[in-house]
Design a protein that fits this description.
- 44% of the residues lie in helices and 20% in strands.
- By secondary structure, it is α/β, with parallel strands linked by helices.
- The chain folds into two domains: 112 residues, Nucleotidyltransferase, domain 5 (2-Layer Sandwich), CATH 3.30.420.40; 130 residues, Transcription Termination Factor Rho, Rna-binding Domain, Chain A, Domain 1, CATH 1.10.720.
- Helix 1 packs across helix 2.
- The strands form two sheets. A five-stranded mixed beta sheet has the order 3-2-1-4-5, with helices on both faces.
- It is globular.
Length: 286
């Protein structure tokens, strides 16, 4: 019996799994150790996860999350789990490795995340071998929900949208230019606010100014990230809400610039379950 967790900065999807059989699904708030302390995360695990799994023998916990790419930050999560769950083995790694394992399994390929943020890597079937730093939504994160929101807000406030769309947006979200600037520059989690505008873009994707904005943002992601890997000999796979909901445009951009798109999944979890139920399940029997 293993406990799998795939977490972004917004939420964590937990699955209790016996082989390929899913026993339970549990959800908690995002556990990015850059924004939350060990004590805070531990308290939530104690309140939500521990009661749900305490009657099961947990052979291992595999936690993949945003902000867990370094040993120091991974230890924050590992200790919070160890505080509450009895298990002989805990492994904490990045959400990018979860994407690679979930999308590629034991095959090599290029794995990408397009959600609130963005990331990418070349995966050899075992480990991440190359990674272009995403740099965050101010300097990078091309194609992400936060960057789509940032680009849209910029176009909106500089009157670059189709006539009438700016007024429609401000009315629907009950915003003014002043409240937007305050939220982006003075309030915490501006990236989440910007990413939260994505449903409006999807709703208005047939508008030429919105479509072109999204198309060019994805092209920027491909050029600055994917095309630095061996994309001519490997499929490019995606996970994340942005990739999933804009998959038609992703396919179009890929086709236009000669990149072969493989799997696009909203979450890597189903692939992770298959990964650990398959030939790689011996990892937690060490």
């Amino acid at each position: 019996m293993i406990l799998l967790a795939d977490g972004g900065s917004t939420k964590v999807d937990w699955r209790l799994v016996d082989g390929s059989k899913e026993i339970k699904q549990i959800s908690t708030k995002g556990s990015n150790p850059f924004f939350r302390t060990r004590e805070d995360i531990s308290d939530e695990i104690k309140a939500v996860i521990k009661p749900a799994v305490e009657n099961y023998v947990i052979d291992a916990v595999f936690f993949f999350g945003a902000g867990c790419a370094t040993p120091e930050k991974s230890m924050v999560i590992k200790n919070a789990i160890a505080d509450n769950i009895k298990t002989p083995y805990i492994e904490v790694d990045s959400d990018l490795l979860a994407a690679a394992k979930g999308l590629c399994g034991t095959n090599e390929g290029i794995a990408c995340i397009l959600g609130t943020g963005s990331n990418s890597c070349f995966y050899d079937g075992i480990a991440i071998k190359e990674n272009i730093s995403p740099l965050g939504y101010i300097l990078g994160d091309e194609g992400s929900g936060a960057v789509l929101g940032r680009l849209f807000i910029g176009a909106c406030l500089k009157n670059q949208l189709t006539k009438g769309l700016k007024e429609k947006f401000l009315k629907e979200f009950d915003l003014t230019p002043a409240t937007i600037l305050d939220t982006v520059y003075k309030q915490p989690m501006a990236n989440r606010f910007l990413a939260s505008l994505s449903p409006f873009l999807i709703e208005n994707i047939q508008d030429e100014s919105v479509y072109n904005l999204v198309y060019n943002a994805f092209k920027d992601f491909f050029v600055k990230n994917v095309m630095q890997y061996d994309y001519k000999n490997n499929d490019v796979h995606f996970t994340g809400s942005v990739a999933y909901h804009y998959k038609d445009i992703l396919h179009k951009v890929g086709s236009d610039i000669g990149i072969k798109i493989g799997t696009i999944a909203q979450s890597p979890m189903e692939g992770l379950i298959r990964y650990y139920a398959g030939e790689c399940q011996t990892i937690y029997n060490r």
